[in-house]
From TrEMBL:
One of its GO terms (cellular component) is plasma membrane. Its cofactor is Mg(2+). It is found in: Membrane. Belongs to the glycosyltransferase 4 family. MraY subfamily. Mg(2+) binds at N193. One of its GO terms (biological process) is cell division. This is Phospho-N-acetylmuramoyl-pentapeptide-transferase. InterPro entries: Glycosyl_transferase_4, PNAcMuramoyl-5peptid_Trfase, PNAcMuramoyl-5peptid_Trfase_CS. Its EC number is 2.7.8.13. The keyword Cell cycle applies. The keyword Transferase applies. GO terms for molecular function: metal ion binding; phospho-N-acetylmuramoyl-pentapeptide-transferase activity.
Amino acid sequence: MLYWLTGFSDGGDFFNLFLYITFRSGGAFFTALVFGFLFGRPLIDLLRRRQGQGQPIRSDGPESHIVAKAGTPTMGGVLILGALTVSTLLWARLDNPYIWMLLFVTMAFGLIGFADDFAKVTKNTHAGVPGRVRLLLGFVIAALAAAWATWSHPGELQGQLAVPVFKDVLINLGYLFVPFAMFVIVGAANAVNLTDGLDGLAIMPVMIAAGTLGVIAYAVGRVDFTDYLDVHYVPGTGEILVFAAGLIGGGLGFLWYNAPPPPSSWVIPAVWHWAARWAPSRSPSSMNWCWRLSGASLWSRRCRSSCRSSISSAPAAGSS
């Protein structure tokens, strides 16, 4: 949406910054992160009041997990989806079909997850929407998204599957491209769903994958990068980086309230900030500050949680 401000630019003023995908990606990251900070606590309090005892916990899980998760409200994904949607609509180009494809798939699968959690809470059971129903809905959504993507691709790339490492190899799947894409989309969605369950276990791989795919999409969406790397050029995919940055920011905002502070996690913000120290000469300033401030955010979160744990475990005054 803010991209439209470039219409007021004379080529050398502040509005000209909105032309750059890297600048808008940084804006999407910070918007999603701040959204998580501002609305995370009110959302958690609302869900706790509405759900009471929270989501029923499976009895076949780790004992520590059963005890720690008791009474924890579910539907925390609403915070991530809200942050992602707001940041994407605000900073991405709304005339880009890939943005709307991503939002469609995200919101559609998000509704399935919401319905599943809602059924678990209302029925007071860990079995929500039946698995077959979820799979059927997932395949329908994936079929629509795959057909949409095929229609949006350049003519010479429609139905083609690029093979990693082998730059000149394209496999023409033809009509099999849609079922193949359906399998990948539904498989990835269920893989994350199966991974979820412990704090930070699903969102961290999702953030890493989003960052990687965002960079790849940005590279193949630029003529100069594709010429240098000798890969296929797909116009418009660079805008996916804005979506990926919003997802990472929303994920960090979610982790602010979700992740416990294991000792090993101290190294993450330390390395992150150290990487940012060497990044200025090699990355745009907005993305560099994403690295720095998000690393500082994680570090402050760990400090606060560790202090809180130490205080709560300390013996009371006068006790033996």
